Structure formats: structure tokens, C-alpha cells
Amino acid sequence: MAFQPTPKQLSLIKAVIFLLALVPFGRMVWLTYSGQLVEPLEFITRGTGDWTLYFLCIGLAVTPVRRLTKWNWLLKLRRMLGLFAFFYATLHFTTFLWFDHFFDLGEMWKDVLKRPFITVGFIAFVLLIPLAVTSTNGMVRRLGGKRWQWLHRLIYVIAPLGILHYWWMKAGKNNFAQPILFGSIVALLLAIRVYYAWDRRRQDARLAR
């Protein structure tokens, strides 16, 4: 029998995940202000980017894990996971805008247009914004279920763009181990979704006969 938490248990699970998701941020703040980092800017930039990808991957993994375990309640965690991906992406972008360009939008825009890996990362971040803005129940009602679902399929574009951004950034250091790992995970998760879509159409066609 599939595990089905009570409302109280589910609230506790959400609270634990929320606190755990803030641990990397708290660690970055502590290490920066305690002066323990040799290159704080690089550490924060790398850390916020990594955790953006972690939460994108975890969010994409919810559906296959739910189908394998029959834990349908996992869907109630997906919104929070997606918002944490946006949270760390926002920190990542803010670090770039603040410490690299000191909030000079003109210089930032020149950098975005000049360097492809920043261009791709910027596009991915911009595409995340409408997903975060429409994450509330009220926005789901305003948009309607189908339009909301179509909008949030942007995640299938955002995740590969995030991997490409990471790949090009690491290419400068000839370090491809982590981009390959992240890329493989995202490719697998997207392939699983393609299979689910194909299987659903196949079953619908069989029922229509």
C-alpha cells in the first residue's frame, strides 16, 4: 500500500524540506560574513547556480518518482521545489548584476549580448519568471488548468538551457564532469516524460478503436 501522509504529516514534510532548502543559502551567508572564503564571489556564484540546477532536477523528478511509488502527494511539493529553483536562480542573477556590474544595467546588457553562456543563462532566468509569478492557486484559476499547464511546460526548455549555460561556463576551464552529470540527469528525466506522453497517446488510441 502506497504511503499516504495525513495533512499534519504533509505539513511537517513541507516544513522540513523548506528548512533544508534554505541550508545552502544560510551556509553561503555564514561563510561569507565570517571571512572563511578565499574567493567569496566565485563561491556564491557557483553555489547559487548549482543549487538552481539541483532544484530543477528534483522538480523534474517528482512525476517519475510519483508514478513509480504511487505517492501522489509528492505533487504537492513540486510548487515549493520550483520556487526554490527560482529563488537560487534569482540569487545567481543578483550576484552577477551586483558584484560583476554594480547594478549597471547597460553594462550588464552588453555582457549578456557579448558572451553566449551568459546569454543562455539570462534567457533561462527570464523564462523562469512567469513560472514563479503564476505558481499561486489564484493564477491557476485565472489562466485555466490547460493554459497553466502549457505555460509551465517552459521548464522543459529552461532545464536544457540551464545545462547549456553550465556547460559553456565550465568549458573555459575544460571541466566537463559536472555538466555531463547534470545533462545526463536532465536528459533522462525528459526522456521519461517523452515516454509517458507516448504511452498515454498509445493507450488513448487503443481505447478509441
Describe the structure.
The protein is mainly alpha-helical and 209 residues long. The chain contains nine helices and no strands. The protein has helices at 7-33, 40-69, 75-100, 105-114, 116-133, 137-143, 145-152, 155-171, 177-208. The longest helix is centred in the C-terminal third of the chain and has 32 residues, at 177-208. The relative contact order is 0.10. The mean pLDDT is 90.
Task: Produce a short descriptive summary.
The chain is an all-alpha fold.
Shape: globular
Following the backbone from N to C, one meets helices and strands in this order, namely: HHHHHHHHH
Q: Determine Rg (CA atoms, Å).
A: 19 Å
What does the average pLDDT come to?
90
Give the low-confidence spans: none
Q: For the terminal residues, how far apart are their CA atoms?
A: 33 Å
What's the β-strand tally? 0
* DSSP helix fraction: over 70%
The description of the largest β-sheet is: none
Helices and strands: which structural class?
A: mainly alpha
The portion of residues forming beta strands comes to: under 5%
Helix count, DSSP H or I runs of 4 or more residues: 9
Based on the model shown, name its key terms.
single chain, 209 residues, 9 helices, globular
SSE blueprint:
Layout: H1 7-33, H2 40-69, H3 75-100, H4 105-114, H5 116-133, H6 137-143, H7 145-152, H8 155-171, H9 177-208
Helix pairs in contact: 1-2, 1-3, 2-3, 2-8, 2-9, 3-5, 4-5, 5-8, 6-7, 8-9
